[in-house]
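User: I'm writing a tutorial on reading structure tokens. Could you give me a worked example: one chain, its sequence, then its tokens, then a sentence or two explaining what the tokens reveal?
Assistant: Sure. Here is the example chain.
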Amino acid sequence: FGLSGCTFSRLLGKSAMHLPVDVAYQALHLVASFASSAATALQTMAGQHVVGTESDMNANFGEPAFVGPPTPKMSTVLCVLWPLPPLIFWAVDHYSRLRRRRVEDSGRAATASFAAELTDAATPQSADVIHGNGGGDGLAIVERSRGEARNSRVLLASLEHHLDLPSVQAKVIAGGLGKVISLIAQHHPGDITMVHPMVKEEGGIDYGRNSSSLQREPELTLWVDGRLHTVVVYRAQIPDREAGRRVDFLLLSHDLFENRTRKSIYPNPMTRREVLRFYSLWNQAVGALLVREQSTVYHCPDFHAAVAPWYAVEQNPRLCILLVLHNAEYQGSISTDMIQKEKLDVMSSIWNLPPEVVQRHLVNDGRFNMLKAAVNYVLERQGRRGICAVSADYAAECHLAYSLLWPFPQINGLDNPMLEDERPTLTIDLAQRKAMEKEAVQRKLGLDVDPEARIFVSLGRLVRQKGVDLLADIAPWLLST
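And here are its predicted structure tokens:
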């Protein structure tokens, strides 16, 4: 049992590059264990005799009758079974390597097919050009030629947004995703439509509903949890953009959306039915806009609108998605309940999807999971191409930590999106600047102005993922050293 456990722990915990060393290590242990068992069995066979009865002794001229050694059945069985763990180890390793090669081959073939489909989707006024990267890493980059903006362009959907337009001022940002969304709006190389749900207009947020900056679009009529909902759609544009780099904002108005504030962008917990209704309405609205805009690339950050492609795929079959992992720990999941029978029917009603679709695309290991919808779309319709994370290190961490992502042969990371000309530059000596800022912080927070005092600063949300529990543990040590 010890050898078996060691074998399988190594199988699950080591990378392929360590496999030959592990195999040799297991082989040495196997030989040693087999030799020990064999020696014990031989000693037993040589030393155990059975003395007969008195009549047997008389019949053999007073000598004890030799019956023979017992058969070491258990030792024999164990000796036969000992080689099985390494054999299973080698077999699993062999077939996993074959599977990895098949996945990589199918991914390359899917990328080629994918590119052909997108090229077919182009119009004479706006042809898509697909650029592969030789090795086939990541989703092919879709570069729009300069043409009609409404044809074959990218659509991005996110709850966080930053609009700084004439008569429209809305900064709804919780963290890094909001900054990325702002950068995309400024620097996206082609036409893009950005979809955002409105929040309550307070604290400096003004969507300018009555201004000329917003144009009202046809409404969306959607079915959520047995009720019909109407979502009002407004369109705004960044002015004075050159041809082929048009940025449209589609802002969605509904009570479920505008019950949120800039301080409560993400509804929670997922166990509340009202929260599920919010996400259902949001995903259905994005799906309807993917059909209306006939976008061919859907940029999907995290789980919040991960179900949207399944509402659009029948009427927009050439739709592909780019799933970007900013925070894969949150997957829109309900870990407390198993989704079975009547609960599956409840989810089907809330999400306006057949039970079999919910079971297949929204249930992972028996529990509700929104991120799985986007993962399945990439797996089933894009040959495992179209997923990445915000950095190479975080991509490797996600791939290792979350079983939902294990079907992918690899997950690539993105470069830092901050442009070099936007990085801050020092105009004075760094030590002098730090001293000035330190004094300003001490005055603002009512601390003693002491240039020798130490100030510890942590930037991040108060959640376990940011390591605040570690900071709490080491705070006494920090203050005492």
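What the tokens reveal: Residues 84-121 form the longest helix (38 residues). The chain is about 40% helix and 15% strand.
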